[in-house]
């Protein structure tokens, strides 16, 4: 895991992980407006996709979030995780959610080693890192939760509190 993509991710979130590690190390991210990329891709909601998405989402958080941010965000992360159990059950990918959690459990020691290596290269504060994140639920796969003004307001308020506590 020197400076490129994390080999164990295989699919999904590897770009997010790399971008967050670059930010942690003091790098900046940008957009080249006239860049063009062809990506032959079809969003296939096959069962294994959910497993890798869930596994790598948590692996990214574990590896990259500074400890102060992780501690402050944990209540919201746990609440989201509990809600996702119901989403997974309602949408037929509960078994993949379970497999993702099992994968995480078995890889936790490795992820914590990787976390130490990632965090050792950190050049920015937890507040600076957190300012580049958002607290929105904008996925169409979350159903009514992503459209809920109440939930959106609660998350926004919680995130403002986290940023204030981090000095961000």
What is the residue-averaged pLDDT?
87
Order of helices and strands: HHHHHHH
Helix content: 55-70%
Strand percentage lies at under 5%
Shape category: globular
Query: What is the CA-based Rg, rounded?
Result: 17 Å
Largest sheet geometry: none
Tally of helical runs:
7
- Give the terminus-to-terminus CA distance: 29 Å
Q: What class, by secondary structure content? A: mainly alpha
Number of strands: 0
Unreliable stretches:
none
Description:
The chain is mainly α and 168 residues long. The chain has a domain at 7-24 and 44-124. 64% of the residues lie in helices and 0% in strands. It is built from seven helices and no strands. Helix 1 (14-24) packs parallel to helix 2 (47-64). The longest helix has 27 residues, at 94-120. It is globular. The relative contact order is 0.14. The mean pLDDT is 87.
Key descriptive features of the protein:
168 residues, mainly alpha, globular, 7 helices
Layout of helices and strands, plus pairs?
Layout: H1 14-24, H2 47-64, H3 67-90, H4 94-120, H5 126-131, H6 144-147, H7 149-166
Helix pairs in contact: 1-2, 2-4, 3-4, 3-7
Gist of the model:
With 168 residues, the protein is mostly helical. It has helices spanning 14-24, 47-64, 67-90, 94-120, 126-131, 144-147, 149-166.
């Amino acid at each position: 895991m020197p400076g490129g993509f994390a080999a164990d991710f295989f699919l999904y979130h590897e770009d997010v992980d790399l971008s967050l590690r670059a930010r942690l190390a003091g790098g900046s991210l940008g957009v080249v407006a006239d860049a063009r990329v062809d990506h032959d891709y079809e969003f296939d909601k096959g069962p294994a996709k959910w497993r890798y998405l869930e596994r790598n989402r948590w692996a990214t958080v574990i590896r990259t979030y500074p400890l102060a941010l992780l501690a402050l965000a944990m209540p919201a992360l746990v609440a989201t995780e509990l809600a996702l159990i119901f989403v997974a059950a309602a949408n037929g990918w509960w078994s993949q959610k379970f497999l993702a959690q099992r994968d995480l459990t078995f890889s936790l020691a490795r992820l914590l080693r990787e976390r130490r290596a990632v965090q050792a290269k950190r050049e920015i504060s937890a507040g600076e890192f957190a300012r580049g994140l958002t607290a929105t639920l904008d996925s169409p796969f979350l159903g009514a939760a992503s459209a809920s003004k109440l939930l959106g307001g609660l998350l926004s308020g919680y995130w403002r509190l986290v940023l204030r506590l981090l000095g961000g």
